[in-house]
Design goal:
6-stranded mixed β-sheet; alpha/beta; 2 domains; Rossmann fold; 6-stranded parallel β-sheet
Length: 425
């Protein structure tokens, strides 16, 4: 419980969870998509896409589209949404699976009969890289899964991971746009990547790609990934490069980012001001090791005055060395808790805006002034959970998980550290 500057008693946990939801709600497809819909074409309208928000985006298009349409989108298991005309298929994430491959093949077949009077609306959101999976000729799905898993565990950034993915794909890195030619192609995207680069969001299936096979090869070498041999040889050979800027087949394409991390942080800042707090936005595109960033942010919080809240977004990484469970937000929170060391007026929430932190059932976690005290009383070792990368187990044992279920959007991580004006424990 804390007292805001207006004299209101505020339940701290409820405030932090509502702060998180304020960031999520502004990025919900129903709230951000309708204003970006194009005009209907002379010909037919086909809706395609992939991502954790793809089902909700498809349903929003159906609700606001004035004429007939058809299509197919791919979303993560458990993230589906009821639709009438656009089929929604669930598939594996973050490791691609056969369902995603088959659905991607169906999308490509939908585009076989299009002409210059048709319109293709492509709905893209975070998670699309794994879901929109169609390996290039000479690449097996099993080997692509192995290299994806290795990259996810290596500490590679999302931009680096997607560079490799694009060069192992027959659909990403601008190749879906080539398949949509000669129709008019309009992409509506919800950004989940630092910097909102269209070529990185879902591995840029509808935009030109500036990266090369040599870039992908260097990334694999930098992270000491030398298997599977099929993948290494395919990347080194580099037979068919991704389409580049200036390709005439991309002339009739347009791209609109309809939601992004900065807008969600703005919404959270407004929510904080409404409660008399001073928001400080540290950035919406922060990267780096999750636990280290958490520690750095905690040090900043210790220097701030009361009545302040530090907000940040982006996508951190976790170099996995232990067998534990957890996502990057819970890992970030371990760094926060350790550095704060029980400071009595500082709280933290760290969540993934898609509602799933890593592969667990929680959106994220909350750190309270007595987190370490409660852990000690329960015989829970912070250091042991750090060494085993078991951030989920640490916060679950303390009942400090934030569980929302899939939010059906995704603008990446959301983090807030509250330096309360007045505390009542």
């Amino acid at each position: 419980m804390f007292i805001d500057t207006k004299g209101n008693k505020i339940d701290t946990r409820e405030f932090l969870e509502n702060l998180f939801l304020s960031a999520v709600n502004v990025a919900k497809p129903a709230n951000c998509l309708p204003n970006f819909l194009p005009s209907p074409p002379k010909g037919k309208t086909i809706v395609i896409g992939a991502g954790k928000a793809a089902g909700a985006m498809a349903a929003t298009v159906e609700k606001h589209w004035p004429t007939s349409l058809q299509g197919l989108v791919i979303t993560r298991y458990g993230h589906s949404y009821p639709t009438k005309y656009i089929k929604v298929i669930e598939a594996g994430h973050p490791i691609p699976d056969m369902s995603g491959k088959k659905a991607s093949m169906k999308i490509m077949r939908l585009l076989d009969s299009i002409n210059s009077e048709d319109l293709v609306i492509c709905l893209i959101s975070g998670g699309g890289s794994a879901l929109l999976t169609l390996p290039a000729d000479g690449v097996s799905l099993d080997n692509k899964k192995l290299v994806t898993d290795s990259l996810l565990r290596s500490g590679a950034t999302i931009s680096e991971i997607n560079c490799v993915r694009k060069h192992l794909s027959a659909i990403k890195g601008g190749k879906l746009a080539i398949a949509s030619h000669p129709a008019c192609l309009v992409t509506l995207a919800i950004s989940d990547v630092p910097g909102d680069d269209p070529s990185v969001i879902a591995s840029g299936p509808t935009v030109p790609d500036a990266t090369t096979f040599k870039d992908a090869q260097k990334i694999l070498e930098n992270y000491n990934i030398s298997k599977p041999r099929e993948i290494i040889d395919f990347i080194k050979c580099g037979k068919e490069e991704t389409p580049k800027s200036g390709d005439v087949r991309l002339i009739k394409t347009s791209y609109h980012t309809i939601a992004k991390p900065s807008l969600s942080l703005d919404a959270a800042a407004t929510f904080a001001r409404h409660h008399g707090l001073k928001p400080i936005v540290l950035g919406d595109a922060l990267e780096g090791e999750a636990r280290k960033l958490g520690s750095d942010h905690a040090l900043l919080a210790l220097k701030e005055k009361k009545n302040t809240i530090l907000l940040s977004g982006g996508e951190t990484t976790v170099t996995v060395s232990g067998p534990g469970r957890g996502g990057r937000n819970a890992e970030y929170a371990l760094g926060v808790a350790e550095t704060l060391n029980g400071n009595r007026n500082i709280y933290c929430i760290a969540c993934d805006t898609d509602g799933i932190d890593g592969t667990e059932d929680n959106a994220g976690v909350i750190v309270t002034p007595d987190t370490l005290k409660r852990a000690k009383l329960a015989g829970i070792s912070l250091k042991q959970h750090q060494e085993t990368n078991d951030s989920y187990g640490f916060f679950k044992a303390l009942d400090d998980l934030v569980i929302t279920g899939p939010t059906l959007t995704n603008v990446n991580d959301f983090r807030a550290i509250l330096i309360s004006p007045d505390i009542k424990l």
